[in-house]
Amino acid sequence: MLALMPLMAMLVATAASSGPSRVLDVRAFGARPNDGKDDTAAVARAIEEIGKLKGGRLVFPKGRYEFHAGSNPASPGAMMALDGLDAIEIDGGGSEFRFHGLAQGLTFHRCTNITLRNVTLEWAPAPFSVGRVIAATERSFDVEVEPEYPVKGGEPVGAFMEYDPATRTPLRRGLDVYNGVELTELIRPQVLRLRLKWPIAVKPGVLVVLRHQVYGYNGVSFHRCSNVRTRNVTMHSVPGMGLIAVHSRDVTIEGLRVIPRPGTRHPMSATADATHFMGCKGTVTLRNCVFEGMGDDGANVKSGLYLTVQKRLDERTVLAQHNLKMADLPDPGDVMETFHTDDLIAYGHATVRSAVLEDDRITHRVEFAEPLPAELREGDVLGNASRTPKLRMSNCTVRLNRARGVLCQTRDAIIEGCTFDRCTGPGVLVLTEVVHFFESIGTRDVIVRNSRFIDCNYGAASGDASLMAMAWLKDFAYPPKPGVHRNTVLRNNTIEGADGGGILAAGVEGLTIEGNTLRNVCRNPGRDEAAYGVRIINCGNVRLQGNHVPEDRQGAGFKKDVRMTP
Fold first, then answer.
1. Quick check: is 135 in a domain?
2. Has residue 261 been placed in a domain?
3. Quick check: 349 pLDDT over 60?
4. pLDDT confidence of residue 96
5. What distance lies between CA 73 and its chain's CA centroid?
6. What backbone torsions phi and psi does residue 435 show, to the nearest 5 degrees?
7. Residue 379: which domain range?
8. Rounded to 10 degrees, what is the CA torsion of 404, 405, 409, 413?
């Protein structure tokens, strides 16, 4: 009892104080660093208490804290959950939060003025395994799994990808397979046999990374939050996305590191995107971040999801669904643009009066304040033009990941002073598409400047160039007409090494490409579009000036510095 008195006194003192200086120490609620015991319930009690104080700091004395899935009495699906709180700062003090089992990490719902700082998050065990392929048939392959990834058979594999054994990085033009594994079985200690749903030619001798969990459990999630900030947060071995913000406003991310844990041989940091921003407003800021070894993009910033019109009920009301049956309800007052999927050029817009999900939970009933355009037809899509946050991304590094460095699908974006190093897809892809994910929206006013692209676009999710702006229309129709994207500026970038082209733009009205330097591009282009330093297709109002593409310093497949059609 005497040992608890200082902590009890601290709790009473902080609870009686007022203003932003109120501080709660998690030890006052039973959490103890480095004792190996489950701290989940104790931290939940601390969160409940700081909610009563209506603002303050929750501090974790430096050490390691243990959290277990299902142990949070307030929210069993999350290790830590904050709901409806304002003016809260969580300061990890340099601590490590070790997460055991599958649950969300930190979730914030309808919170305002939130800061998360100085903490490392890690799941144990890792949500992936790594091993060498020792045998393969048409419908199965055997993997000798490395000792640090204990396996017993029966583990799910949502995706697998080939890696280079020498570098432990994604294999150039290697396999990248989702949903192809029927089951796994242990044929002897640490050797898994993966039975396949269809024939896949896996190469004996390569490394494979087996992702047992791809999506679903994120490191930090913000949902309908505003004015949120993270500083100096690090994440390892995340069974999903590192940080995700949905329908939130003004999100600032500084010094976020999503990386494999130093001192391990892990080739992967998060099984999906490092960061993902869907349907936000205000400004999304990414500053001084490092994203390495993810299973997907470094940053995906999008207005949300295109909703396909299923039925027009009257002149103001439609029923609509997303292609993959996901929900993305607009808010009253949001402006939705209307598009035909064969060109994705907006032909109208209307303001949302109300939006609800039908009983099937996938059909959106959207009513508008004014009549919809007369030419609206079934199969057209609605894109939310109000949920297009400004993007300000500076001094960030994305490296050694599957897919893109940045997938930019918003308006008023500046990406500057960044390095994209051996991303298997383009370093930056400015995109909108209606072929699979139906992620919206056609961009406006995007600037990519003063950035480096090093040996990008060589494997999974690759395109024709390291820096791209383009669109996929219905049934993969291509190229788009000018105006899908507007006012794209690609200036003073350096592209060093690429199997394909350096820069490609298609369907842009108002395109500036100037002052860029391209070296050793077009080493091994997969098709003609990728054999040019700069490729411009169906763009209008083009300014092309001061680019440096010396022919004698390009790859073996290089044809010409610039090709522009029509």
1. yes
2. no
3. yes
4. 99
5. 29
6. -120, -25
7. 307-384
8. -160
